[in-house]
Amino acid sequence: MRQITKALAVFSMMGGLITGSQALAEPFKVGVCYDLSKAYTFATPQVAQAAQDLAKLVNMKGGIGGEPVEVIVRDHGNEPQRGIECYSKLSREGVFVFDTLSTPVSLAVLPRAMADGRVLMQSLVGRGDAVDGTVFDWVYPIGPTYWGQAANDVAYIKQLHDGDMSDVKVGFVYFDYPFGQEPIEILQTLSEKEGFELDLYPVPLPGSDQAGVWSKVRRDKPDHLIVWMLGGAHVVASKEMQRNRISMEKYISVNWLNEVDIANIGKEAAIGLKRGTNVVGGPDVALRQGIMTEIYEKGQGSGPLEKTEDVFYNTGLAMYSIVFEAARKAVELEGLPITATSYKAGLETLKDYDANGLMAPITVTPDDHGGGGKTRIEMWDGEAWVPQTDWIAEYTDVVWDVVRESSSKYEQ
Predict the structure, then answer these.
(1) 192, exposed or middle or buried, with CB in 10 Å at 0-12, 13-18, 19+?
(2) Residues paired with residue 202 on neighbouring β-strands, in sequence order
(3) pTM: predicted TM-score of the whole model, two decimal places
(4) What is the Cα–Cα distance from 281 to 315, expressed in whole angstroms?
(5) Is 16's pLDDT higher than 90?
(6) Within 13 Å and on the Cβ side, how many CA atoms surround 33?
(7) Are 328 and 346 in contact (CB under 8 A)?
(8) What contacts 17, CB < 8 A, 6 or more positions away?
C-alpha cells in the first residue's frame, strides 16, 4: 500500500496527463545522445534506463496533453563528431530537445543548438557558464554546476568550524583535466574570502596510480578533502587513504560516486565518506517505487533491475522528470503541438519543482537556466546515505561573478 500510495503521488505530479483510453497523437521526442561504450559507462546506462522507464510510465498514463513521449537513445562514444551526427540526424527527424551527458559532446553541439533554436539539456556536464540564460538562451544545465557544488562543499566545511575557517586547511584532489580543474577558480576565490588554506593535488588520468598524491596528503595533513574524480578512481583513493591512515571522514566527493563505488570500497571501509548531491539516493523515493509497481513488477523494465538500485538511476529520473514536466507546462501555456519555443517557455516556468521529493527544488528563469544550484552533503553510515545539510546554494554571488565573467567571453 505504501508503494501504491507513493506511486499515485508521483502520477498526480504530472497533472494534465490524459487517461490511457484516449487516443495518442504524434510523440514528443527527446534525443538522448549518450556515451554508452567508452568513458562514461559508469553512469550512462543507469541514466538512459531511467529515461526510458519514465517515458513508459508517462505513456501508460496517456502521455502529455494527449501526446505520447519517445526517448530515442543513441551512442556517441564520447566522440564530438559522432555527437554532432546524432544531433543532426535526430534534428531531421523532428527532435528539438537533446541531452548528451558528455562535456566534450555538449561543447561541440552547443553552438549548433543555439543557432538552430533547439534545446540542449546538459545537467552535470558542459559549460558551467551556460546557466547564464542571457547568453546561452537555448542551453539548460539544470542542476548544480561544478562551481556551485564546490562552493556548497566549502559552506558545509565552514558550518563544521562554527563559521570560522581561518585555521582550516582544505585539500582539493582532482583529475588533472578540465572536469577536475573546473572548481579550482571558485575554491581559490573562497580561500581568499574565508581565509582557509587551499592545497591542490592533481591526479593523472586515468586515476589508477595515486600513491604519490596520497603520500603528500598524509604529509600535509589537510582537515578536509574535496575530491573531483570518477568511478574506480574513488576506490583507488580509498585504498591509498587506508594505507596512509587518512580518515575517510575527510573525504567529500563530487556527485559522481555511487553504490557500485561504495561496494568496491567496502560498506564498512566507506563509513564516514561524504558526497555532494542534488538527488535523493536509495529506493525509498516515490517515483522509483511507482516505476517498480507499474513497470518492473509487470516485467516491462527497460533494463536490469539492479541498475535501478543506484543513485545514477535516480539522477536519470530527476533529469527526465524535468524534461517531461517542462513539456507538460508547454502544453498548459500554448497547447499542442509542443514546439521548441513553447518548450523553452515551459522550462522557464518551473518553480520549486522537486519531482515529488526526488531532488533539490529547482526554479528556472530566463536569466538562470541552472535552476538555483542547490545540493546537499550526504554521509555513508555503512548502510545508507545520511543527509548532513539541507538543500543549500551558498556563495551564489561568487559563483555568478565567475559565471558572468566566463559567459561574457562567449562568441557565437
Answers:
(1) exposed
(2) 174
(3) 0.91
(4) 9
(5) no
(6) 32
(7) yes
(8) 11, 58, 61, 62, 63, 64, 65, 328
Residue 179 has pLDDT above 80, yes or no: yes
CA distance 355 to 245: 41
- According to DSSP, the β-strands at 251-253 and 169-175 are unpaired
At residue 279, what are phi and psi to the nearest 5 degrees? -130, 155
Alpha carbon distance 222, 383 (integer Å): 27
Q: Is 273 a residue whose pLDDT tops 50?
A: yes
Instruction: Give alpha helix (H) positions in 171-310.
Output: 178-181, 184-194, 211-220, 232-243, 259-265, 286-294
Using the predicted structure, report yes or no on whether residue 241 has a pLDDT greater than 70.
yes
Cell 546554494, located at residue? 393
Cβ-based burial of 347 (10 A; exposed 0-12, middle 13-18, buried ≥19): buried
Q: How confident is the model at residue 48 (pLDDT cuts 50, 70, 90)?
A: very high
Q: Rounded CA gap, 306 and 297, in Å? A: 13
Q: What is the full DSSP assignment across 145-177?
A: -HHHHHHHHHHHHHHHTTT--TT-EEEEEEESS
Distance CA 190, CA 236 (A): 28
Percent of the chain with pLDDT over 90: 91
Which single residue is written with the C-alpha cell 540564460? Answer: 133
Q: Give the tens place of pLDDT for each residue, 317-364.
A: 999 999 999 999 999 999 999 999 999 999 999 999 999 999 999 999
Could you give the dihedral angle defined by the CA atoms of residues 325, 84, 180 and 210, in that order, rounded to the nearest 10 degrees?
Answer: 120
| pLDDT tier at 152, thresholds 50, 70, 90 | very high
375: DSSP letter:
B
The residue to which cell 581561518 is assigned: 166
- In 3-state terms the chain splits into helix, strand, coil percentages (rounded to 5) of 45, 15, 40
| pLDDT the model gives residue 123 | 95
Q: In what order do the strands lie in the sheet with 97-99?
A: 69-75, 28-34, 97-99, 119-121, 139-140
Amino acid sitting at position 153: D
Burial class (CB in 10 A: 0-12, 13-18, 19+), 236: buried
> Is residue 412 predicted with pLDDT exceeding 80?
no
- Report the DSSP pairing between strands 376-380 and 385-387: antiparallel
What is the rounded distance in angstroms from the CA atom of residue 218 to the CA atom of residue 367?
44
C-beta atoms surrounding 266 within 10 Å: 14
